[in-house]
Design a protein that fits this description.
CATH class of one domain: Alpha Beta
Family: Belongs to the transketolase family.
Strand order of the largest sheet: 16-15-17-18-20-19
Protein name: transketolase
Keywords: Magnesium, Metal-binding, Thiamine pyrophosphate, Transferase
EC number: 2.2.1.1
Number of strands: 25
Distance between the termini: 99 Å
Helix content: 40-55%
Shape: elongated
Number of helices: 41
Largest sheet: 6 strands, parallel
GO molecular function: metal ion binding; transketolase activity
Structural class: alpha/beta
CATH superfamily of one domain: Thiamin diphosphate (ThDP)-binding fold, Pyr/PP domains
Length: 1067
């Protein structure tokens, strides 16, 4: 090391608050001197502890090296010179300004930074306390609280430090090539020089990722940056002017003279500007500096003195703790005119301007400029967009990308994806665990987009996190035929989509079912030493979801069940298709949710307050006895010309509005579907983290499989939807009941079959909508699923039919469990939306629908379904089975249990029915089959379903014995299963030219022309009375069947027109 004389030693000065005691300052200074005793000379003049003007910086009196204290904090804490929130420091400040209220700002700011950035809970030593009057400061406190901020921090940093920050960064990244006054450094991939002043070529920029700087590489520093501002404000008038040029408060300026703010209180309140602080990143760190952190070098230094100063800087930077808080960027004024004015009077800003022009030109940077003629409304919008770090290149990318997707499709819903981008980014970056390495990983977190119209956001996230089925080309095919990006998310159609959503409220209840599945599986299979199931369910929902009745059903059920792994984000943007929610929806949702038993957290500014979003999720994960609702106050179509308007909801924004968004985000308006490299790298690290978590879980799973092989095999079988053994020997054949002439309602035979087969269906859970004694859906000897009894398999859904079916869908979406649910057939109409989606999504739900006709009797027409069966039959990919007796019930369950992609409706009677001769379990799977065949060429075919099969059996006997006719009798439990049979089989059931009469105590809709020539059924509502009397009243009897059969035979003989059970085009 060079032995320097006292005069050659480098002078170092620190920027510290004047309120700190001299003793505290001396401790810090002596520590630095002890770090490099051969370099540092302790300055005597306390004035050197303050910031410097351009004139001083260019004078010979400037210390050789000095620092904003934030860069020193980790080093000083590490060596014990600053204690975290110690009483000494508190007293040090409070004795100077007794009862100083804004001091609480400093404490709160430290707490916030500690939680978000992981920085030690320190008082910021550059919180400037220049005023002694509590009244002036408290007015700012009132202002901050009025604006929704918890704290204000005023770092008094001179803007003239800016170039030195950049130069210093260049020194760090490059190498010193000369010891002369002309020093060339390299940084950001280039080099440059200008006279005796170091001119670095690294980009002057605001860092776009405030959370983890390892997401920013050298390319990040040199490209795609929007340059924002921070200025030293000289006068109140200058501050106002600065705001009008978009240079100060909208971006979170560094206000050097605190007293100016008090005088501007009314101005700021009137124009609704907001105050924030822009933190900066450290080189290669996992932390963030709480304020601007920098070491600066006197550009007048020459020779050996300059080299020693550089050595000191390099020594300082070599400390790993300091390295964690070094910045990668800087901020400067955006306004070109103001910058030119400063450049004419300052070599520093001359070089800033030189660097700006050079890098804008070389890197084709998009630099945000503001029109000085902006109206107040536009200023307010820009202020809102830029406050609290529009830093977020990732969020800006999501907003612009989703806007491009909808614009390219010429239809869609851009407002929701744009508004929810910050919430989605924070969730994905810090909390959401799922991996494209294995999208079916059953301990992944589940993400449900209940407001499915915002699917462009989910597709963009899938693309960014590496799902091979979601290349950029698919984003460009949004809403196109056969694309992987349909207009609403579809399960199994698009990899990474957890549920088919879109009709509002469905996803809310689906997520309840998923959370229920997680709780049940954790209770059944987790061990003290090995936890296989410990994931969360995250759900986005909207104002529209909250208006839906089923949403309240789901929220109520989840609250009762205390499903704490369910965290729901309510996009409270106050806009519906018709306009403001004030038109129709003014409930206090927070109070409603609390009443349902939810933990409620409100994020006042979810447009930009990422810390609040992150803290809300962290707080929700700490709740153990309640699900959590995070109410996110967002702006639909944020930063577009349609922000806050219904126009942003359901149609493309238009090129002008999209370009406006891109301009504010600093994106090239000529580029579409643009994803900066650093954003891709950011999401790649998210994907890599999740892949690593998956591998760690695989180790746990392997250990589990070795230690608990039986349980592991059960889990594996459930994941493959396999039965635990042969189901067929377990199916009752009800021969004894037939022999004894015992009649049983098919709801009772359903109960018998269900309890027989559950032993080979370890993943089967289910329940009823408060109709257990009527539906007979209970499991004998089984336990209820309740908060204190998570391993129970029977679910008491309460009177929540629609919610129940959607929750059951969610259980199935989860992937390991099977589910069945029960209610009256008539109430399937309540649940039709969710039931339909189960068919669309190909999830094999089992619907136990009892009290299927006028046979329920005395409850009357309000409860007697007439139109429901035809409605269910009209739904594609839904199998409706109406068994005639116990054996057909066994056949129905055989199909339902083995189905992996088709939901099944079991249509069951309340009234007892006989066990009919020749019914068959396996023939039930054919959909229709001959019970009795009199001839290859019968006079008539009688066909019926369910409880009416006994009627046609009696009618057939009467036709044979009393009229000498040849009759074929057909049981047709399922249209859908029959349609799956080959044409040859169908022709054996429906013989060419033979008239067919169908009987079903339901609407005849669909029978005539397809499966019969005449349908005896219900063309009116039913009645209240004994079911036998109602059957007689409506004419569904053996006698009337005989009468209609004779008329049909008389009309057609054996020349009945062909039925259309198969397409005429098949012939």
């Amino acid at each position: 090391m060079v032995d320097l004389t006292q005069s050659e030693r480098v002078k170092v000065s620190l920027f510290l608050p004047n309120q700190l005691s001299r003793e505290s300052r001396t401790k810090i200074s002596h520590f630095l001197r002890d770090c490099s005793p051969h370099l540092i000379q302790i300055p005597e003049n306390e004035g050197e502890f303050n910031c410097y003007s351009d004139q001083v910086l260019l004078s010979s009196e400037l210390p050789d090296v000095f620092s904003v204290d934030a860069a020193f904090l980790p080093l000083l804490v590490k060596n014990g010179l600053i204690a975290p929130l110690s009483d000494v420091i508190k007293e040090d400040l409070s004795q100077f300004i007794p009862n100083y209220q804004p001091f609480q700002f400093a404490l709160e700011s430290c707490r916030v930074q500690s939680e978000l950035y992981g920085i030690p809970n320190l008082i910021q030593t550059n919180v400037v306390l220049q005023k002694e009057s509590p009244s002036e400061f408290s007015s700012e406190l009132d202002l901050a609280q009025h604006k929704g901020y918890d704290s204000i921090v005023y770092p008094d940093v001179a803007s003239s430090d800016a170039l030195h920050i950049v130069k210093n960064y260049a020194l760090l990244q490059g190498s010193i090539t000369s010891t002369t006054t002309t020093t060339t450094t390299t940084g950001g991939g280039g080099s440059g020089e200008k006279g005796d002043v170091v001119v670095p070529t690294c980009t002057i920029s605001l860092n776009a990722f405030p959370e983890k700087p390892e997401h920013a590489d050298e390319h990040f520093v040199t490209s795609y940056r929007t340059i924002l501002n921070a200025t030293q404000i000289e006068a109140a008038e200058d501050l106002v002017e600065s705001c009008r040029y978009g240079k100060c408060i909208p971006c979170g300026a560094y206000i050097g003279r605190l007293e100016l703010m008090c005088g501007l209180k009314s101005k700021i309140e009137d124009e609704k500007w907001n105050l924030t602080l822009l933190p900066f990143l450290g080189k290669g760190s996992t932390k963030i500096a709480p304020t601007v952190s920098c070491i600066v070098l006197n550009s007048q230094l020459q020779g050996q003195r300059r080299q020693e100063a550089l050595k000191y800087i390099q020594r300082f930077f070599s400390d790993t703790h300091v390295d964690e808080v070094l910045q990668r960027g800087m901020v400067i004024p955006c306004d070109r005119n103001r910058l030119n004015q400063w450049a004419s009077n300052s070599n520093i800003y001359r070089d800033v301007l030189f660097c700006l022009e050079k890098h804008e030109r070389e890197n084709n940077l998009s630099v945000l400029r503001f029109d000085p003629e902006l109206t107040n409304v536009e200023i307010q919008r820009i202020a809102k967009i830029l406050r609290h770090r529009l830093h977020h290149l990732a969020i800006a990318t999501l907003r612009c990308l989703t806007a491009d997707m909808v614009e390219n499709a010429k239809s869609g819903h851009p407002g929701c994806p744009i508004g929810l981008s910050p919430v989605a980014y924070v969730l994905w970056k810090y909390f959401y665990r799922s991996t494209c390495k294995n999208p079916a990983w059953f301990n992944r977190d589940r993400f449900i987009l209940s407001n499915g119209h915002g699917c462009a956001l989910q597709y963009a996230l899938l693309h960014l996190t590496g799902y091979e089925s979601m290349p950029m080309e698919e984003l460009k095919r949004l809403r196109k035929i056969d694309s992987k990006t349909p207009g609403h998310p579809e399960w199994r159609h698009t990899e990474g989509i957890e549920a088919t959503t879109g009709p509002l409220g469905q996803g809310v209840c689906n997520s309840v079912g998923m959370a229920l599945a997680e709780a049940h599986l954790a209770a059944r299979f987790n061990k003290e030493d090995l936890k296989l199931f410990n994931h969360y369910v995250f759900t986005f929902c909207s104002d529209g979801d909250m208006m839906e009745g089923m949403c309240n059903e789901g929220l109520s059920f989840a609250g009762h069940q205390k499903l704490n792994k369910l965290i729901m984000f309510y996009d409270d943007n106050k806009i519906t298709i018709d306009g403001s929610t004030t038109l129709a929806f003014t409930q206090d949702t927070a109070t409603v949710a609390r009443g349902f038993g939810w933990h409620v957290i409100e994020v006042v500014d979810a447009d930009s307050n990422l810390l609040a979003i992150k803290n809300a999720i962290k707080a929700a994960q700490l709740v153990t006895q309640k699900p959590s609702l995070i109410i996110c106050k967002t702006s639909i179509g944020y930063a577009t010309k349609h922000e806050g308007s219904a126009k942003a909801h359901g149609s493309a924004l238009g090129a002008d509005s999209v370009n406006y968004l891109k301009q504010l985000c600093g994106f090239d308006t000529q580029q579409t579907f643009f994803i900066p490299t650093q954003v891709r790298e950011d999401f790649k690290k998210i994907a890599d983290r999740n892949a690593q978590l998956y591998e760690q879980w695989n180790e746990v799973a392997h250990n589990y499989s070795q230690k608990y092989p039986s349980e592991w095999e059960t889990i594996m079988r459930m994941s493959r939807q396999e039965l635990d053994g042969d189901i067929e020997p377990l199916l009752p054949n009800f021969e004894k009941e037939e022999q004894e002439g015992k009649e049983l309602a098919t709801r009772m035979t359903s109960h018998i079959v269900l309890n027989s087969i559950i032993r080979v269906m370890p993943g089967l859970v289910g329940g009823s909508a408060d109709l257990t004694p009527s539906n007979l859906t209970d499991i004998e000897g089984g336990l209820d699923f309740q908060p204190q009894q998570r391993h129970g398999r029977y679910i008491r859904f309460g009177v929540r039919e629609h919610g129940m079916v959607a929750i059951s869908n969610g259980i199935l979406y989860h992937g390991l469990l099977r589910s069945y649910v029960g209610t009256f057939l008539n109430f399937a109409s309540y649940a039709l939306g969710a039931l339909r989606l189960s068919a669309l999504a190909h999830i094999p739900n089992i619907y136990v629908l009892t009290h299927d006709s006028i046979g329920l009797g005395e409850d009357g027409p309000t409860h007697q379904p007439i139109e429901v069966i035809p409605v269910l039959r009209a739904i594609p990919n839904l199998v409706v089975i109406r068994p005639a007796d116990g054996r057909e019930t066994s056949g129905a369950y055989l199909f339902a249990a083995k189905s992996k992609a088709i939901p099944t409706c079991l249509i069951l009677t309340r009234q007892n029915v006989p066990q009919i001769r020749n019914t068959d379990i396996h023939k039930t799977l054919k959909g229709a089959y001959l019970l009795e065949s009199s001839s290859q060429n019968p006079d008539i075919i009688l066909i019926a379903t369910g409880s009416e099969v006994q009627i046609i059996v009696k009618a057939s006997k009467m036709l044979k014995e009393e009229h000498g006719l040849q009759v074929n009798t057909v049981s047709m439990p399922s249209w859908e299963l029959f349609e799956m049979q080959p044409r040859e089989y169908k022709d054996q059931i429906f013989i060419q030219g033979v008239p067919v009469l169908s009987v079903e105590a339901s609407s005849p809709q669909g029978w005539i022309g397809k499966y019969s020539h005449f349908a005896l059924g219900m063309t009116t509502f039913g009645a209240s009375g004994a079911y036998q009397d109602i059957y007689k009243k409506v004419g569904i009897t053996p006698e009337n069947t005989v009468d209609k059969a004779l008329k049909l035979i008389s009309k057609f003989k054996k020349s009945a027109p062909p039925l259309l059970y198969a397409s005429v085009l098949d012939e």
